[in-house]
Amino acid sequence: MNEYLSNKKLKFAVIGAGNGGQAFAGYLANKGYKVNLYNRTIKKINEIKQRGYIDLEGSITGRGKLDLVTNNMEQAIKNVDVIMVVVPASAHKFIANEIAPFVTEKQYVVLNPGRTGGALEFKNIIERQNLLKNVCIIEAQTLLFTCRAVEQGEVQIFSKKKEVKVAALPAVKNNEFIHMIGDAFPEFTLVESVLETSFNNIGAVLHPIVTILNCGRIEATKGDFQFYIDGVTSSVAKIIEAVDYERMSVAKALNVDTFSLKDWLEYTYNAYGDTLCEALNNTKAYRGIKAPKNIDTRYIFEDVPQSLVPICDMANHLMIRTPTIDSMIHLASVLHNTDYWRSGRKLTDMGIEELSLEEIKEFVKNGDISDSRGVVA
Asked: Inter-axis angle of helices 202-213 and 234-253, to 10 degrees?
């Protein structure tokens, strides 16, 4: 246990100044932590830089004064303890390459969320630049906040989840991390490994499927309907549940504890119903959240390549069929005129394409594997 970290006030860097990034930065600063905010494009944070603070409204109110607002990664993460990465998963590769030269082994990098295989890809990128840099990557199963940025420096918090499951890569760092972060985020609870956070990625099930199946309605109304409630009819729910079943089948083959979307809604939001439609309709946190204004949305360009594709690629590796997920990847590729299978996150990006099931499980636990002679591979 790092006693220094456990006995001092942590300093954070928040990477990304979108909806979630501003929410995390404002929330932490309002709680009294020192916070640096980074965004790649300075134009998108100029107003925050001038103000020097972020205002929170909604279910959480207050003002968080920031220590530094910058587009310089080296300055942003220098001497901080925890690096909170809050960007679309499609940007993880870029951020990992930007962080790699400056991050140290004493820092924790937290992906909020990692989607599917995020921590594995992030760690693989850093270690490709420096094999000896043994950085601990934390993967969150979902985003802590349901939120929207009203403008630069002003965030509306619709709700804060009562629990977010997290895991360290390697998992041997789990207890050290949770002891260190507990005061800042008591909602973070440990699971066994990043395989569990990755394959309990609810965004993979909910975001792209509802968007794809409502593409006509989105274009006709410019997103003027309640996405999670109006967008899920009984027929849409059948397809969501088929994708959910395939996701859980892959998780089962990995010996990963998993839960259905309906169970997750009950546990996370106390939303109950005899059917998935009813449970979504009873999810108070989703009320008032409109659909995307067009189909050029991260619900497709993030969640398909960074969530559905890695689930599918792992299924292929384990010789499991995922026909419904395959069809959603194909439809998304047609809608966006791109090949999401080719560009999506795959086992090669995670550095585990040649590992057996047992070797994958050992790698996520210890951060390396050993061959039969006891030599680290």
From this structure: 150
